[in-house]
Design a protein that fits this description.
Length: about 325
Amino acid sequence: MSEIHKFIFDGLPVRGHLVRLTDGWRELLQRRARAGRAWPAPVRELMGEMTVAAVLMQANIKFDGALILQVFGDGPVKLAVAEAHADLAFRATAKVIGEVEPGAELGSMLNRAGAGRCSITLDPGSRQAGRQTYQGVVALSDAQGVALRSVSQMLEHYMLQSEQLETRLAVAANDQVAAGLLIQRLPIEGSANVAAQAGIDDSARDEAFRRIALLTATLTPVELLGLDPTTLLRRLYWQEPLRRFDPVGAAPRFECRCSRDRVGRMMQGLGRAEVDAILAEQGRVQVACEFCALQYRFDAVDVGELFTPPRDQMPPTVAIN
């Protein structure tokens, strides 16, 4: 079962989250495989890392809406998207055009000519008064112009450039598990409060984060994917004053928010002439969700209803007993 664990270091200005996606991650991959749309192995690994990273960041900021992590590439992977909601429901998709070589890494898939970009969008969804969509975008290279080589480096760079928050991230994925560990230095206000209560000065506060960051950097993908959370945290931070919190709320899970109504509205946006042309050529309109591979089929009658105002549609048939 997928799980999430929150922890802090007593008296130190550092917090963390550990996430393991198991059943939901496998369901996502299995749906694509059944639909004949399985990703190449390097893309599966990339999408697993991005998906668990999206869940980690959503759990960290507790945003009431959707956190959408996107990477726009100039290699065979043109677009990679991972989305996590406030209830930790997640989904992911990628647009792959061209061959992805075995063992391909972030650079060769998404940043061959240095034009790759990473964006994070916070979408409140409900569009309540005063709530606006936020988006931050950074290049897939550091401040010195050196290309970033991994999802972890990409998101650490993003958090530092866009949010001015020191973050360390470890993510890994295979066909069975996607797992990630995030630690973050508390914002200045929270950091100062924790430090003041514990009697820690600025230099000691800096040293505490550097020490925990170095410990986090020793974590290997094999350990991250294979160890249970209790064992992993104990091995990694056994000398640190770590305090874990019991999980609260729903566990992370795969869930797609597509629907026949949404697909119908998309078709209405295409216009009647274009939809009729597809009908004439194929006899029906078939649309597959990019996130879950679910197929939506519309015949001539369905299309007619889509483009007929409700007031002109036939009332539903009522059975008379």
